[in-house]
Amino acid sequence: GAVVSQHPSRVICKSGTSVKIECRSLDFQATTMFWYRQFPKQSLMLMATSNEGSKATYEQGVEKDKFLINHASLTLSTLTVTSAHPEDSSFYICSARETGTLIRTEAFFGQGTRLTVV
Amino acid sequence: KQEVTQIPAALSVPEGENLVLNCSFTDSAIYNLQWFRQDPGKGLTSLLLIQSSQREQTSGRLNASLDKSSGRSTLYIAASQPGDSATYLCAVKDGNTGKLIFGQGTTLQVKP
Predict the structure, then answer these.
(1) Cβ contact (<8 Å) for A104 and B100?
(2) I need a surface site. Which of A16, A24, A56, A79 has the fewest CB within 10 A?
(3) pLDDT above 70: percentage of residues in chain B
(4) Which residues of chain B have pLDDT under 70?
């Protein structure tokens, strides 16, 4: 199956700093990528849909100025958590769907990034 | 608004037992339903994907069924093993929005 690589897998940062998380599709092109957030013992919640070459679409309640998404190429989307605070500590996971495939096609997930803000 | 519920939240069984995990969704307008496995602190591993036109999918000891009209899916695990211990997530691709909506998961423990 297709591979989605997410980096870093773990990051600890100080409160007030910014953190960038990368999501790469290694063996396919992805016009659309998705960013999810998972709190401990809770399910995944979609944060935003990232589209190559255009602005991301954010879900209700997600601050777009807080969580900056850039999808500048067909294989890379980045999520930057700006001015991070302890409440931003969470598990962030991306997924990608191959360009040109139907909406019902399976999306592939990265391995996630554990963000801890101290 | 589509909602996905998984029951039970946690399950503990002895090794070798067959078990069933349940997933229900409120809106039958879906593209597909997918079962995932998540180990602690790790990402998602896709187990089975059932398209809306299908009734079931099988992979090894796993069998997933889909009854779209009643909004239900089950994941059957045969001859469970300690290595099956993980959290199992069910997700539907909503037919109205195209978004993947996840359940809360069932945490399974298989005791040796």
Answers:
(1) no
(2) A16
(3) 100
(4) none
> A77-113 b/e with 16+ CB inside 10 Å = b?
bbbebeebeeebbbbbbbbbbbeeeeeeebbbbbbbb
What is the pLDDT at residue A99? Answer: 77
Residue of A46, A104, A111 with shortest CB distance to B43: A111
* B83: three-class secondary structure by DSSP: helix
- The pairing of strands B100-102 and B86-94 is antiparallel
Q: Which residue type is seen at A80?
A: T
Determine the pLDDT at residue A1: 64
For residue A108, which phi and psi values (nearest 5 degrees)?
A: -110, 140
The answer, for B102 touching chain A at a CB cutoff of 8 Å, is yes
- A9-28 residues touching B, CB cutoff 8 A: none
Any B CB within 8 A of A108 CB: yes
For residue B1, what are its two tokens?
A: 């608004």
Name the residue of chain A whose CA is nearest to B94's CA. A104
* Residue A16: pLDDT over 80: yes
C-beta atoms of A6 and B43 within 8 A: yes
Residues of A in contact with B86 (CB under 8 A): none
Beta-strand pair B30-38/B56-59:
unpaired
